[in-house]
Amino acid sequence: MTENMILAENILQALAAGLLVGCLYGLMCTGLGMIFGIMRVINFAQGDLMMLGMYSTWYLFTGFGILAFMGAIIGPIVAAILAGPILFVIGYYMHKFLVAQVTGIRVAGSEGEGHYAQLILTLGIALILQNGGLIVFGSEPVSIRTPLSSSAVILGPFWGDFVEVFVNKARLVGAGVSIAVVIVLFLFVTRTRIGKALQAAADNSEAALYMGIDVDRAYHIAFGIGTAVTAIAGGLVATYYPFQPYVGLEFVIVMYAGVVLGGFGSIIGAFWGGMIIGLVQQMSTLVLPIQLQNTAIFVVFLLVIFLRPQGLFGRNVERV
Amino acid sequence: MGGSFTKSLGAFALFAAAYVALVFLAPDEYYQLMLTLVLVWAIMGISWNTLSGYSGLISFGHASFFGLGAYTVVLLQVYYGLTPWLGIPLAGFVGALAGVVIGLPTFRLRGHYFALAMLAYPLALLYIFEWLGFQEVAIPMERENPAAYLQFSDMRAYALIALALLACAFVAVRLIESSRFGMSLLAIKQNELAAEGAGIHTRKWKFYAIAASGAIAGVIGGFYAVILLVVTPPTVFGMLTSAQALIVTLFGGIGTVWGPIIGASILIPLAETLHAELGNVLPGIQGVVFGVAIVGVILIAPEGLFWKVRDLLYRRRGADAGPAYTVSDVPLIGERRHDLSGRTMLEVKGISKAFGGVQAVDDVSFTVPEGSIIGIIGPNGAGKTTLFNLLNGFQKPDKGEVLFEGENIVGLRPSAVCQRGIGRTFQVARPFTRLSVLNNVLVGAYVASADDDTALKHAREAIALVGLEGHEDRIAGGLTNIEQRLLELARALAGQPRLLFLDEILAGLGSSEVNAMIAVILRVSEAGKTILIIEHTMHAMLKLADQFVVLDHGSRVAVGKPSEVVRDPTVIEAYLGKKWANRA
Amino acid sequence: MLGRRELLKTAAIVVGAAVVAAGGPALAQDQAVQIGLIAPMSGPWARQGELMRLGGELAVKDINAAGGIESLGGRPIELVIFDAGDSAEKAKNAAQRMVSQYPDLVGVTGAWLSSFTLAVSEVTERAEIPMLTLSYSDQITNRGFKYIFQMPMTGNEQAKNAIPALLEVAKAATGEQPTTTGIIADNTASSESFASPIRSGEMDELGLQVKFDETFTPPLADATALVQRARSTRPQFMLMLGTAVPDDKLLLEKVNEFGLGGGRMPIISSGAHMGAPELLKSVGPDLLEGVMTVVGNWAGKGSEEMIARFKEVTGEPWMTQDSIATYGDIMVFKEALERAGKADPKAVADEIRAMDLTDGPAQYYPGGEIKFDERGRNTGADLVIIQWQSGQPVPIYPDNIAVAKPIWPTK
Residue range A157-177: average pLDDT? Predict the structure, then answer.
C-alpha cells in the first residue's frame, strides 16, 4: 500500500465508523431532544435511563434468556427494541411522580427557581439509578455476545487490490434500526393526534391548555417517549459495547452536545446533531491524538453554541 | 445592613467555635479528615454560589477552577519545589484567570446554554490533562521540613487551615452579599434585562462574580490537592466535583452563604459514613441514600433547607409583615393642565424595525416635551413594546434616530441609556422576591448614586413618592399585585431618571387600583418627571395622558390630544375594525 | 438572619451525631491479629477487589486452620476489608479511616489500581504501617517510602524481561525473530510503565521497529481508529496494553473485525485483566485464542493443591493474579509475624525488610524468592506470561510455573 492508499483508507474508514456510530448517537439525542427540547428539562438521569435500557436488553437476551431462542443475531436486536416500551413506563411514571412536581406549568411562573429544583432532582435520580444499579446489577461489566460485533461487511477494494472499508455488522444493524426508529417517531409526532398534542404543548403550554389538551399528561408521555427512544439506542449500543451501572456518564455529555448542536424542538435536528458528534469523534482521530477525541467533541460543541446558539437545525433562539 | 453583617459574623464565630470543638473531640484522624472535607466542600459550594447562586447563571463546570487550582499546587511543588503555602494563593489567581477566560465567550450565552457550555470545559480539561501525562501526580513527601510544605502529621492542623479559609470566604461573600455587587447579581438572577434596564452593567458584574468564584474554587482546589496527596484528572475535573459543589449548595440553600455550609455539614458526613459503614455490604448504598435524600429535600424544600426554615420562622412571626397597603392611602391630586409647552426632551425620528418579513415598527416619529405625560396606545400587536425596546436600547432599530436631550442614544446598551436618565418599568412586575422592599428599591438606586448612603437616600425618597412608606421591611414576595407595581415604579424612580418609560403599568389592576395608580403617576409627574407610558386600554389613559401617539401595525396612525384622538376614525378602525369605524 | 443560630446548632448536632453514630474505634483487643485488605469493592473495579478478597480469605482460613500464629501463642488472623471505591479520593479516605479506626492493624495489602495504591500508601507511610502491593507502576517505589513493598516486578522490568523471551518463542516458531511491532496502550501508570522501555529506546538492541504507538484514555469509546493503525502498518506483532475488560473486548473484537484475528497479528498484553474470567464470558474463546499477557503473578505449577481448593471454595474457573497475590501477601505477613513475635506494625515492617526467602510464602510468587531492595522492590520477583489456549489462560513462562508450552500464533 502506498502512503496515499493508507490515507484514503484511513479517511474512508473513519467516515464509515463515524456515520455508523453517528446514527446511534443520533437516536440517543433524539430521545433527549424530546425531553430537553420540548420541556426544557435538563435531565441528568438520561444517561442512567439509557443504562437501564442496556440492562433491560441484557436481561431479556442474556440474563433471563427470554429471547435467547431467537439466536445471537436477531435476539439482541429484538431485546433492544423491547427495552423501549419497558423504559417508556419507567419514564412516564418518573416524570409523573417526580419531575413534574418541580417542572412544567405548575411552576411556570416561579422565577427560575424551578430550574434549580429540576437540576438537583434529576441529579438525585441519576445517583439513585447509578448506585441502585450497582446493588441490583453488580459492578462487573457485562456485555451481550453476538457474532455481529466482531465481524464486518467489507467494502472495496476501491484502489487496485487495496483500500478496503470495514463496516461493523452490529453497528450497521444498530444504525439501520436507529434510522427506522427516528422515522417512526417523526411520523408519530407529525401525523398522529397524540403527537400533535405533544407539539402543541411544547410550543405553547398555556395555549394548549386552553385548547383542551391535557398538558400534564402530554408531558408525561413526551418524557416517556424520550426515555424509551434513548433506551433503544442504549440497547443497540449494548450489542457491541460492554457496560456497567456507571456507563450513563460516558454518554450523557455526548447526548447534550448532540441536542444543542441540532437545536431545540427539532427531532430531526437532534438526530443530525448526534450524527455530527459521531463524525467528529471518528474523523478527529485523523488529525488529532486519539486521546483528544472527546476534547474535539467539546470544542465543536462550544463553537456551535457560540457561533450559532439556535443550533444547526433549530427553529428559534432561546428566549430570555 | 451593618447590623446584619455583624450579626452574621457572630453566628459564624459560633459555628467556628463548634467546629473547633468537634475537631478536638473527634475520636481519630479519620473524623478529623471528614470534618476537613466538610469545609472543603462548603467552600466549594460557596464558590459555586458566588456565581450561580447570586447571579442565577447555573454552572456545571466549577470543576474547571477546582482542578486547575489543584494542579497548580501539585505541579508547582513537583517541578519547582514550590511550597503550597505559596502555591495555594497562586491557585486562587489561576482560578480567577480561568474564570475570566471562560467568561469571555461563555457570558454571551444565557439559561440552559450557559449551563451546558460550562459543562464542557472541565471535561475537555480532563482529557487534556490525561493527554499531557498528568494522570497521577503525587505531592512529594517532605521529610526535612514538612510544615514549610503544608505537611502536618496532625490532621487537626488541616482542619484549622480549612476553617481559616472558610472564614476568608465567608467574610468575602458576606461583603459581596450586602454590597452593590451582590445586589447587582441578584438583579441579574431575577431578570437580566430588567437589571440592565435599571442601569446595572450586567457584564461587568458577571465577570467580577466569575473571577471571585474561580479564585475561591482555585484556592480550595489547591488545598484539596494537599489533603488528597494524589491528584488525578477524574478526581478534580470529574463531573462529580461540579455536581457536589452544586448539591451541597442547593441542599443547604441557594443564594446565601449559609447554604453551602449547612449542606456540606449534613451531606458530606452522611455520605462518608454510609460509605464506610455499608459500603461493603451494599456497594452503592451511600449513593442511593444520598440520592433519595436529595430528591426528598427538593420535593419538600426546593430552594434548600435554609430558606425552608427561614420561611417557616417568618410565617410563625406573621406580625413582622406590617400593615397591608390600601389603595385609599394614596392622596388624590388636583386636575391636570395638559401642558405640552416644555422643551423637547426626547425626539424620535423615523424609527423602524423589522423581524423577518414583519415590519414591527415602521417609520415612527414623535416628540416628548419635558414635564409631559405621553401615552403610546394601540391594539395588541401594534408594536408598542417593540417601540419601547428600541427607545431604551434593548433592541437596535434598523433605521431612525432617538435623540435624548439632543444626543442620539441608538446603539447604547440599556444600562448606558439608564445612566443618561431614562428609567423603565416592565410589563410583568419582577420584584426580587427574597429581598425587602427597601433592598429592592436600593438595587435601582445604585445607578445614580456614587455611594451607598446616597443610594439609601434616593431609595427612601422613591418609596415615599409612590406611597410605600412604612412597608420598607416587608419581603417583596409577600406583596400584593398593586404593591409590586408600585415597588417596580419606585425601583425605576430610585435611579433618578428624568424620563420614565412605563410599560402597561395598569394592566391587570382592578378599577380602584387603577385610580390609585393613576394618582401615583400624576404625583410622580408633579415631582418633575417626564413620562412615556404605553397602554393597551384607552379608557384609563384619558385621565392621565397629555397626548396620545397611536400605533397600528407598527405605524403611527394618529397623534394628538386624547379627547380628539378617540374620535379619530382611523383610531377606531385600528381598535375595532372597519365596520365600527364606518358607523362612528 | 433569623434562625441562623438554630440552624447552626442543628448542623453541629448533625455532624456530632454522625461522628457518634459511626461508632468509636473498633474493639481491638480481641485475640485476632488484624491485617487490612484495601481494594475496590464498589465501582468499576469491584470485580478485581472481589478476586483479591477471595484469595485473602482463603489464606486466612488456611492459617487459622493450621493453628494461627505460633509465636503469638496461636493467635488467629483476621482480614479487615476496606472499600477503596472508584476514585483515588475514596481510596485515600478509606485508608485514613483504616489507619485511624483500626490502630491494631499490623499490615495492609492492596489497592489494585496503581493510582489507588499511590494514594493509599501516602497514608500508610505516614502511619508507619507496612503495605504490600501487587500494583506494577514503578512510581509506587520511586518516592523514597519505607513502608511500601512492591511484590511483583514493575511494569518496566516486566517488559524488559518478557519481550525478549517472547521474541525467542516467535523465532522458534517462525524461524526468524520479529522486527516490527506496534503499541496500543491506555495511559494508566501500569501500562505506561510497561511501554516505557520500548518507547525510551532501552530495548533498541532487540532491533524492534515500532510502526505505531497510540495512547488512549480509558474507558475507550471506540477502537476503530486504534486498530486501523495496526491494519495500515501491519507490524509482526502488537502490544495491546489496557487495564479494563471492556476496553480489551472492544480492541479484540475490532482486531477480529479488521481481519487481524485468529493469529494473523499476535497480541501481547500486560496485566491480569487479560486473563479474567469475565473477559472470556464477554468475548468468547475464539477471539482470545493465542493472546498472551504478562502478569506479576499467576497460580500455576507448584500450587495445584491450593488452586483446587480455591476453585472449590469460590466456584471461580481459575485462580488469577489478584487472588494468588493476595493469598501470598497474607502468607508473607504471617511469616513476618512469626519472626517478629509481636503484633506490631513496625516490627512486622522490619521483618519484611529483612526477609530473604526462597521457601514458605515465596512459593506463591513467580520468582520463588522474596528479598527487598531499599526502595521496597522485590528483587527476587519474576513475571509470568500466560496465554489463552483452548479457552483457558495458562501460564507458559517461566518454566517453574508454566503448565503449557508457549505457542506463537502463526497464520
Answer: 88
Residue B143 and residue B14 share a domain: yes
Q: Please indicate, yes or no, if residue C67 is contained in any of the structural domains.
A: yes
How many beta carbons lie within 10 A of that of residue A161, not counting itself? 9
Q: Would you say residue B199 lies in a domain?
A: yes
In the predicted structure, residue B580 carries a pLDDT above the cut 60: no
Query: What ipTM was predicted for this assembly?
Result: 0.85
d(CA C392, CA C293): 13
**B63-81 tens-digit pLDDT:** 999 999 999 999 999 999 9
Q: Are B120 and B127 in contact (CB under 8 A)?
A: no
In chain B, the number of structural domains is: 2
Out of B120, B192, B292, name the one closest to residue A320 (CB).
B192
As for how many domains chain C has, the answer is 2
User: Has residue A5 been placed in a domain?
Assistant: no
Query: How are beta strands A165-168 and A152-155 bridged, if at all?
Result: antiparallel
**CATH number of C262's domain:** 3.40.50.2300
Q: How many Cβ atoms from other residues are within 10 Å of residue A236's Cβ?
A: 32
How many CA atoms lie within 13 Å of B80's alpha carbon, on the beta-carbon side?
11
| Same domain as B234, residue B108 | yes
Of all residues in chain A, the one with the smallest CA distance to C186 is A291
Confidence check: pLDDT of B84 > 60: yes
Give the confidence band of B519 by pLDDT, cuts at 50, 70, 90: confident
Question: Which tens digits make up the pLDDT trace of C85-105?
Answer: 877 878 888 898 899 889 899
Residue type, A249: L
Query: What CA–CA distance (Å, rounded) separates B86 from C354?
Result: 41
Residues of C in contact with B140 (CB under 8 A): 143
Which chains would you list as touching C if contact means 3+ CB atom pairs under 8 Å? A, B
Q: Is B429's pLDDT higher than 80? A: no
What b/e readout covers B12-21, taking b as 16+ CB neighbours within 10 angstroms?
beebbebbee
- Amino acid residing at C236: Q
Q: How far apart are CA B368 and CA B378, in angstroms?
A: 18
Nearest alpha-carbon partner for C269 in C239, C309, C304: C239
DSSP C161-207: HHHHHHHHHHHHHHSS---EEEEEEESSHHHHHHHHHHHTTTTGGG-
Are the C-beta atoms of residues C128 and C349 closer than 8 Å to each other? yes
Domain range for residue B446? Answer: 337-583
Question: Which residues of C fall within a CB distance of 8 Å from A150?
Answer: 252-254, 256-257, 261, 283, 287
C194 Cβ under 8 Å from any chain A Cβ: no
